[in-house]
Amino acid sequence: MKLTGFFPSRTLGWYVARLFLVRSFVILAMLVVVLQTLDLLGESGKILAIPGNTDADVWRYAGLRLPQIIARFLPFSVLLGTLVTLVTLNQNSEIISMKAGGMSAHQILAPLIVASLFVAGISFIFNERVVTRSNAVLSAWQKVEYARVPPDRGTRANVWVRLDGDLIHAGMVSGRGAATVLRDVEIFRRQDNGLVGIIRAPRATWVSDGSTGSWRLEQARQFDVANGQLREAGTVMAAQGVTPDRFTLANVKGDDLDFASLRGAIAELQEAGKPTGPLEAALWHKISGPLSAVLMPLLGAVAGFGLARSGQLFVRAVIGMALGFLFFVADNFGLAMGNLGAYPPLLAAWGPFLLFLMIGEMVLVRSEE
């Protein structure tokens, strides 16, 4: 058998990679159908319970939820695709034939690793161009409990900001910088931990006077708790010193922004002196997450080596599956620790990947021996 460097022949490499890709995407399709169906059973009732919502809104929800399910379970499908491919090759004695031809375990897995790099690249692009947008729209829709909301990616819903003892709530926030517009604004004025008044307005815009600024509330109504009176206040200037970035950066979510946008939001937060550790972990995980597909051939390699007639093939497949699921547990744990500030951002995002890369390589070397 002719070998070209580290890789097997083109025919053999394409054969193994094709088996791996076909099985991985078939498993992904089956997982998506089952999970999408179960998810719709749980959410369709909530959607249709809102007056004015129809079956079209249920399908809209399905379209927004589909990219999330694909992104979340693509690594699982790659793991299962690896196990099925290697078990099949082992049962058919094809791996034994490859090793008899002088190929090492690394060379046998080389086509799977290259194919998984292709999957990782597709996953990254899909996450950046599709998943982040669906996350932003679905998150805004769910915040208003599936009521009508413009599907604007730049719109943030249900934002709270604190000014000394007062609380400011904006039902919707759109725009950035001086062009930021607040809608359905409520200002809860408090004194000595008690509510003294409420100002409500359908719209508010930022007015800057140079060094600082305040918000112009239009068609405002003011409620005085002491006398229980509600009066029309017209145009009111309020919330002096509460800059627009307090609203636009209040609910920054790493899952809702692509890599470039999230990096820009982190820079703005750092300029405002706000902590950015969890967002930095989410930023780096946008790279390490898709690359987890590359680990699956290494972690599942234990299922491809060893004699099929030894009766331990099923046990090897279970071990490979267990290693893969342990990685996902460690990955989620690392992100949780990063969100809590217990892990540095780089460690939270890359620690599990590097740890299981070494574990997978160790298992592969031991299997080859």
UniProtKB/TrEMBL annotation:
Keyword Transmembrane: yes
Localization of this protein: Cell membrane
InterPro entries the UniProt entry points to: LptG, LptG/LptF_permease
Membrane spanning stretches: 12-35, 69-87, 108-126, 313-330, 342-365
Origin superkingdom: Bacteria
GO BP of this protein: lipopolysaccharide transport; transmembrane transport
Keywords, alphabetical: Cell membrane, Membrane, Transmembrane, Transmembrane helix
Predominant localisation class: membrane
PANTHER family hit by this protein: LIPOPOLYSACCHARIDE EXPORT SYSTEM PERMEASE PROTEIN LPTG (PTHR33529:SF2), SLR0882 PROTEIN-RELATED (PTHR33529)
UniProt protein name: LPS export ABC transporter permease LptG
Lineage: Bacteria, Pseudomonadati, Pseudomonadota, Alphaproteobacteria, Sphingomonadales
Gene: lptG
